[in-house]
Structures are given as structure tokens and as C-alpha cells.
């Protein structure tokens, strides 16, 4: 008991984050996300796309060399001609590069959505003076997290470099013969090797990113932990919010009203006032010691109860004093009070007699 009290007053964060705390941190953009996953997926999809797309850059390079050595060589290099030449090259390069950039951007968006879902957190991009504080920046550079990131980066460089060297070594004969190929054949050999290195490196980085994602989620859970005092304060604030209380009461009333309306078709009789009040009664001598109120309402709700009774052929009996007494003196699921037994019994006897007469006439 003493240790629990010490934890409470010391503010030690031992409790898991509440749903509200998770929602608040998510609104601030604080979500468990691995940038390594995004980077690896972007590299993988882009290099796979380049395998399919390789012919387009090849055609562009071929046309560029042709234009350079055949058409541009005959130009008089004035300012206008030079600007026109560069504009044409830039436009053509844009047409070639834009699809690659779009694939990379779309992959990055999808990778982020897979990790954190749809999230718009404008607070993340708000300017904060603390972000340009040199002291805090210095602390970040020499923090334990920065050291871990440095080790991770060095490990990636070594592993990816080793992988790339291994692939180049496997195709060393083709590389040595590269000078004997024509331009297009040489381009396709280099493109194939580049694509293979890119895809293999991306898969390796993706495998290495899985532990990072696990760590990011573990670290996020640790960062958003709460103390017992925080949990208690949050609960008090939520309970004390009039809007939340009102919403809860309204929701509870709606659910209770829905359940009540589902029970009304099971009633034996509905006693009315005749328009302002309606009380639905049910009696089963095998399971009940007294008739039970299974629904009641006033004004519009009374109208709905009468409508349901009419639709289900339930007897409606007008008895103003009894309807008002039942409405004021009972709640839904209550048994009829003893002082109203006689009046209710007379009504039920009347209803049962009508039902018997109807059955006899039907026979």
C-alpha cells in the first residue's frame, strides 16, 4: 500500500495510456512510425517500376545524344538558341522523371497510411522556437537516440555495400566487356545491374526496418505512459465535462427507449389517458407474481406506444386515473403497486374476456 501511494505522489509513469491520451497524442502527430519502412518501400517500388520503365529513359538518352551531335552542333550558339536548347532538354527530362517521382510519392503516402492510418496533424508543421534552440539541438546530436541512429546508418552502409559488391562481382565479366557493347546494349546492362542492386538493397533495408518498427512502437508506448495521478485527473475532467455527461445521458436514454419500444409488442394491454399518457402492461401468471410495466410514455411517446399497440392488435383501454397513477408511480420493468392491483386486475379481466369472445366468434 505504501509503495502504491509513493508511486501515486511521485508521478511515476507506470500506467498504459488511456484512449483519450492516445487520441490527443495522435492529433499532435505523435504516432509510432518507422521512416526506414517508408524508405525501403519507396526504393523497392521505384526500382521495380524502373524495370518496366527502363525503355523510356533509354529512348530519351538516345534522342538526346542524337540531338546533341546532329542538330545542336549546327546551331549558332546565341543566347536565344542556347536558352531554347536547354528549355527543350529540361522539358523532356521532366516528362521522363515525373512518373518516377509520382510513383515514389504515392508509395511514401501509402506506406505511411499503412503504418498510422489516415492522419492530418497541422500542429506538427507549426513553427516552434524550441526547434531552433541550439542547446536542444546539441543535446539531440549527442543523445543516446542519435548514437543508435548512427550505428544503424553505419550497419546499413556496410550491409548494402557488401550486397552491391557481391552483385557486381557476380557480373564482373559483363562489366569488363562493357566497352565492346553498343550504346543501347551497354545501357541495358548497366540498367539491369542497377535495378538488381536497387531491389536487393531495398529488400535488405526492409528486413532491417522491421526491428526498427517494433522499437518505435515500444518507444512510443513508453513515451505516452501515464502516472496514476494523470489517469485520475483525466477521468475527473472527462466526468466533469457537462457536454460529455449530457451525451452519455442522451445515449443511455435513447438505448433505454429503444429497448422499451421493442418490448411494447409483447404487452397484454395499453392503458391510456386517452391522448397524453400511455402505459403498456404485461402479465404472465407462470413467471410473474404481479403485472409488470414494460413501457410508458407521455405525449409523442404515448402516441408511438398506441401506434405500436394498434399495429400488433393489442387492446387499448382508456382509464384516465389509472393511466396517470401508473405513469407517476412506476418505472419501466416495475411491478404494479399493491394499491393498484384491483384496478389493473379489472382491466386485464376485461381484456381477457374480450379476447375469449373474439376467439369464440372466430370459431
Structure description:
The protein is α+β, with helices and mostly antiparallel strands. The protein has two domains: 13-234, no CATH class; 246-362, secretion proteins EscU (name from scop, 3-Layer(aba) Sandwich), CATH 3.40.1690. It is 69% helix and 7% strand. Residues 1-10 have low confidence and may be disordered.
Key descriptive features of the protein:
363 residues; name from scop; 2 domains; 4-stranded mixed β-sheet; 69% helix; 7% strand; Flagellar biosynthetic protein FlhB; FlhB; transmembrane
Task: Give a brief description.
This protein is α+β, with helices and mostly antiparallel strands.
Overall geometry: elongated
Tell me about the biggest sheet? 4 strands, mixed
Q: Fraction of residues in helices? A: 55-70%
Taken in chain order, the helices and strands follow as: HEHHHHHHHHEHHEEEHEHH
Rg over alpha carbons: 39 Å
Structural class: alpha+beta
Strand order of the largest sheet: 5-4-3-6
Beta-strand percentage range? 5-15%
Question: What is the residue-mean pLDDT, rounded to a whole number?
Answer: 79
| Low-pLDDT residue intervals, each spanning 5 or more residues | 1-10
Number of structurally distinct domains: 2
**Total number of helices:** 14
Q: How far is the first residue's CA from the last residue's CA?
A: 76 Å
* Number of E-state strands: 6
Keywords: Bacterial flagellum biogenesis, Bacterial flagellum protein export, Cell membrane, Cell projection, Cilium, Flagellum, Membrane, Protein transport, Transmembrane, Transmembrane helix, Transport
Region (Disordered): 9-31
Transmembrane segments: 37-56, 89-121, 142-168, 188-215
Biased composition (Basic and acidic residues): 12-22
Amino acid at each position: 500500500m505504501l509503495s502504491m501511494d509513493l508511486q501515486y505522489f511521485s508521478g511515476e509513469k507506470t500506467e498504459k495510456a488511456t484512449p483519450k491520451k492516445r487520441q490527443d497524442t495522435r492529433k499532435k502527430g505523435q504516432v509510432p512510425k518507422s521512416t526506414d519502412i517508408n524508405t525501403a518501400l519507396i526504393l523497392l517500388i521505384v526500382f521495380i517500376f524502373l524495370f518496366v520503365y527502363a525503355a523510356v529513359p533509354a529512348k530519351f538518352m538516345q534522342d538526346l545524344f542524337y540531338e546533341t551531335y546532329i542538330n545542336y552542333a549546327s546551331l549558332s550558339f546565341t543566347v536565344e538558341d542556347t536558352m531554347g536548347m536547354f528549355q527543350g532538354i529540361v522539358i523532356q527530362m521532366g516528362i521522363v522523371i515525373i512518373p518516377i517521382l509520382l510513383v515514389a510519392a504515392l508509395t511514401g503516402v501509402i506506406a505511411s497510411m499503412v503504418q498510422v492510418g489516415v492522419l492530418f496533424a497541422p500542429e506538427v508543421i507549426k513553427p516552434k522556437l524550441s526547434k531552433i534552440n541550439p542547446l536542444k539541438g546539441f543535446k539531440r546530436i549527442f543523445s543516446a537516440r542519435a548514437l543508435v541512429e548512427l550505428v544503424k546508418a553505419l550497419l546499413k552502409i556496410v550491409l548494402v555495400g557488401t550486397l552491391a559488391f557481391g552483385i557486381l562481382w557476380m557480373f564482373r565479366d559483363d562489366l569488363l566487356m562493357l566497352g565492346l557493347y553498343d550504346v543501347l546494349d551497354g545501357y541495358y546492362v548497366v540498367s539491369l545491374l542497377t535495378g538488381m542492386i536497387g531491389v536487393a538493397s531495398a529488400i535488405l533495408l526492409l528486413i532491417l526496418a522491421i526491428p526498427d518498427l517494433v522499437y518505435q512502437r515500444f518507444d512510443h508506448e513508453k513515451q505516452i505512459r501515464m502516472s496514476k495521478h494523470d489517469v485520475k485527473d483525466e477521468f475527473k475532467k472527462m466526468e466533469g465535462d457537462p457536454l460529455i455527461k449530457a451525451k452519455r445521458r442522451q445515449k443511455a436514454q435513447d438505448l433505454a427507449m429503444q429497448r422499451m419500444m421493442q418490448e411494447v409488442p409483447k404487452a397484454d394491454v395499453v392503458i391510456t389517458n386517452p391522448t397524453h399518457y400511455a402505459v403498456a402492461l404485461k402479465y404472465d401468471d407462470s413467471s410473474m407474481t404481479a403485472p409488470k410495466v414494460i413501457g410508458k410514455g407521455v405525449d409523442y411517446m404515448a402516441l408511438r406506444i398506441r401506434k405500436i399497440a394498434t399495429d400488433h392488435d393489442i387492446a387499448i383501454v382508456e382509464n384516465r386515473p389509472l393511466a396517470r397513477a401508473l405513469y407517476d408511480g412506476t418505472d419501466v420493468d416495475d411491478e404494479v403497486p399493491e394499491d393498484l392491483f384491483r384496478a389493473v386486475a379489472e382491466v386485464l379481466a376485461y381484456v381477457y374476456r374480450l379476447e375469449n369472445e373474439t376467439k369464440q366468434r372466430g370459431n
